[in-house]
Amino acid sequence: MPSFEPRNPDYRAAATATFERQPAMRTLGISIARLEPGEVDLAMTYSAQFTQQNGFVHAGVITAGLDNACGIAAFTLMPPGADILTVEFKTNLLAPAKGERFIFRAHVVKPGRTLTVCEARAFAQAGGVESLVATMTGTLMTLMPRA
Amino acid sequence: MPSFEPRNPDYRAAATATFERQPAMRTLGISIARLEPGEVDLAMTYSAQFTQQNGFVHAGVITAGLDNACGIAAFTLMPPGADILTVEFKTNLLAPAKGERFIFRAHVVKPGRTLTVCEARAFAQAGGVESLVATMTGTLMTLMPRA
Amino acid sequence: MPSFEPRNPDYRAAATATFERQPAMRTLGISIARLEPGEVDLAMTYSAQFTQQNGFVHAGVITAGLDNACGIAAFTLMPPGADILTVEFKTNLLAPAKGERFIFRAHVVKPGRTLTVCEARAFAQAGGVESLVATMTGTLMTLMPRA
Amino acid sequence: MPSFEPRNPDYRAAATATFERQPAMRTLGISIARLEPGEVDLAMTYSAQFTQQNGFVHAGVITAGLDNACGIAAFTLMPPGADILTVEFKTNLLAPAKGERFIFRAHVVKPGRTLTVCEARAFAQAGGVESLVATMTGTLMTLMPRA
Questions:
Q1: Nearest to D86 among C49, C59, C61 (CB)
Q2: Regions of chain A with pLDDT less than 70
Q3: pLDDT band with cut points at 50, 70 and 90 for residue B147
Q4: What ipTM describes this predicted complex?
Q5: CA proximity to B46, closest of B119, B133, B136
Q6: Residue A37, Cβ neighbours under 10 Å: how many?
Q7: CA-to-CA distance for A67 and B53, rounded, in angstroms?
Q8: pLDDT at residue C98 above 80?
């Protein structure tokens, strides 16, 4: 993976602030575990209230984590003052989301002035073992305030 | 749209039961609004706790609604005893998810013995006006109990 | 489907010219069958040289037709002088692409200043019967020349 | 990346034979450059007849290469006698497909009895430099002959 040069020297504070302004992340129990230019890990503790009919975490909740990981990874490379929008994403669900804790690991594949493409993977941690449960490819858009 | 012949005469009860066994749907405030063979509408009331940084409903929550609409639409055409799994989906976010109430409208495009493809649209209702906010194409898998 | 107002009064000539400047379309034997604001049908005759191991048209060739249908549909709504770029697409293959002739039918779902989202379907025609073989959702980008 | 144990001891001959039975690959000038269990590189020489309006290789042709790379990578892990089908794929186009030669590099992310998920990347080679032009995530299906 290439390393990226952030255009915002305060990228860390800016990305963290954007993440924390999202009530949905608090409600879902998702937090930032690692943050580098173009890379982010989010973590989520298992909660029975977000499960589907077999007791696994719902695909939509896994997608919320993956999408946010992509968004924050893209955001670390955006200029000061930018806002961010998800254009689209695609998720493949590879295994039941069964575990005590979940990690959403995203990195930027291609940063751009308007569009940034990211990839992310969701891992379930259970009994000390980590397993891949889902992948995402997402397209994010940089929004700059009108001059 | 073609009309479909359900293979399970009790498809309505079976689909409703599968939907209601999902704690995530209760937590997110999503319920079944309409249910026909191969078609379903789900409804969700706006809740501030599931929003992103600009006060719109989080893309992951919209995706949870779309994915469940696809799943239940596919499930209405599955044989008795089947369980269902989402294989993958792709979501395009077309407009901010801003409204008092949201509708997730799914229909089966191609039912199959193993795989079923569905399409869904999310609409925001605000001040009596309904607007398209997101689309999904999803692939669902039929799981039959081992003989 | 909503009807769209083209921003380029010569949209028909502009879209046709863009289509015809693509050697790949000529090589694949794809031509414009219908063109309206935000909608296009392309047609392709079966050719054994573009088949896969079972004699069906290769998924990549079907995708080329779907992608071009999306692109031309989006292009009809773009302003004069615009160029167009495909950002991403997702294809579901629903049935073998087996037939004498293929139709790629696209329409704009959401036009935008920068991004336009389209949906397309591929149909195979065989013995007077038309059947759905693939779907696409695609995101297209408007490129304007620098002032 | 994990290493995979092929279930077919003759996976190399089987995968090569399946690839070579596709007239579309010959027509597009695509050949196998590397083949390992769960991994494949395909190569394609630039040809003006497969370009779009700006002289770059058409997105559908790039997709044909990516899809085939995914299919052959998945096929190397399938049991003897299997046939293979693409269920769906999603492509992000990251840069113009401009070059003398193109490489389509795929690997299996998750092999399965019925479904296998692969990722692939397309690279353009120009003047000794290789650059990423597109990504794919695809779902492939194993078809076994009826007993």
A1: C59
A2: 1-2, 147
A3: low
A4: 0.95
A5: B133
A6: 19
A7: 14
A8: yes
3-state helix/strand/coil string of chain A: CCCCCCCCCCHHHHHHHHHHCCHHHHHHCEEEEEEECCEEEEEEECCHHHECCCCCECHHHHHHHHHHHHHHHHHCCCCCCCEEEEEEEEEEECCCCCCCEEEEEEEEEECCCCEEEEEEEEEEEECCEEEEEEEEEEEEEEECCCC
Q: Which of C90, C94, C110 lies nearest to residue B94, judging by beta carbons? A: C110
Is C97 within 8 Å of C134 (Cβ atoms)?
yes
Q: Which residues of C touch D (CB under 8 A)?
A: 18, 21-24, 26-28, 48-54, 57-61, 63-68, 83, 85-93
Contact across the interface for B117 and C92, Cβ inside 8 Å: yes
CB A126 within 8 A of CB A100: yes
Interface contact C63-D68, CB threshold 8 A: no
Closest CA to B29 of B16, B11, B48: B48
pLDDT at D147: 62
What lies within 8 Å, CB to CB, of D8 at 6+ separation is: D14, D76, D78, D79, D80, D82
- Cross-strand bridge partners of residue A116: A140
Give start and end residues of each alpha helix (H) in D49-122. 59-75
Q: Using CA atoms, how far apart are residues C103 and C84, in angstroms rounded to an integer?
A: 22
Instruction: Give φ, ψ of A13 to 5 degrees.
Output: -65, -40
Find the distance separating the first CA and the last CA of chain D, reported in whole Å: 35
CA distance C82 to chain B (A): 21
Q: What are phi and psi of A59, to 5 degrees?
A: -55, -35
Model confidence at C147: pLDDT above 80: no
CA atoms of B85 and D122, how far apart (whole Å): 31
Q: What is the pLDDT of residue B2?
A: 62
The whole-angstrom separation of Cα A127 and Cα B58 is: 31
Contact (CB<8Å) A88/C139: yes
